[in-house]
Amino acid sequence: ETGVTQTPRHLVMGMTNKKSLKCEQHLGHNAMYWYKQSAKKPLELMFVYNFKEQTENNSVPSRFSPECPNSSHLFLHLHTLQPEDSALYLCASSQVGGGASNEKLFFGSGTQLSVL
Amino acid sequence: GESVGLHLPTLSVQEGDNSIINCAYSNSASDYFIWYKQESGKGPQFIIDIRSNMDKRQGQRVTVLLNKTVKHLSLQIAATQPGDSAVYFCAESTGNQFYFGTGTSLTVIP
Predict the structure, then answer these.
(1) Which of A88, B9, B60, B86 is the most interior residue, by most CB within 10 Å?
(2) What are phi and psi of B102, to 5 degrees?
(3) Would an 8 Å CB–CB cutoff place A59 in contact with chain B?
(4) Cβ contacts of B34 on chain A, cutoff 8 Å
């Protein structure tokens, strides 16, 4: 739909599990992002990658580990999560990162994560 | 930190009426603003944007107004339709990072 595809759409995991979220963008963009969306809260920026290099880590706990093998793919590796980590995790891309003027973010549909 | 908020968490309008969704921001250095629409089970979808050197911009059935004096942004939807039911939130940028509002849930009553 939007050119940014996320899998899986839903994920239920225990606190001791290891899982990965995947994002792929087909827009030819050079920047990719992970955002966390919790109920009644604003979107929280987690990580930013520009040209495969991580340029932002917004004080995210180490149980979240991002990986960006190329400009089109982004992963979020999850390990020993807590129930409060349950949320919608959104991937986004933009032409060039940094939130510059006219730099629109294009979002995927997200992965709804439940940690039991 | 940034504070981007919306005046009302929910809004109900009759089909065919106009909708106005408001957003307040705190950073006077913000120079770029976007409105997003998020339907249930989907990611945020770009609606319209505006730069700080403008005070009004129109799209198809949508208008964004920017008042830099009071740091206020609004989204107007003309002839609201059932398909417009969604959560709408604003985003601001200073050129470094986007900051998002919490969203207003718009319900269109047939």
Answers:
(1) B86
(2) -85, -20
(3) no
(4) 104-105
